[in-house]
Amino acid sequence: QVQLAESGGGLVQTGHSLRLSCAASGRIFNSNARGWFRRAPGKEREFVAAISRRDGATYYGDSVTGRFTISRDVARDTVYLQMNDLKPEDTAVYYCAAHPFSGCSGYGCYDIWSKYSSWGQGTQVTVSA
To answer: How high is the pLDDT of residue 103?
Structure first.
């Protein structure tokens, strides 16, 4: 199992930025990719972004493309989510997750929450109007 710990959430105004971090420990070499999902009150869990461990390829949900950037620090086993131009609809709990090695990759795989095996506790992001 991979243990994940998110940090960096908070309260910001519309148009401002935040950077989330996801530090990993444990059996990290069993992870094929790292993803970010979010859940707003009363809504389904939504894919935000993912990054491949093998080649650093990145994937984004439609609602965040062009505003959010996922990146990684391989030496620190940490993944980041830079969130710019935040909007009230970005308000949610953001979760980091680790995707195990499997027969799938890319869209149709990394954007599906049920394919992830390890999850962090989540960090709250609130964007005021």
So the answer is: 82
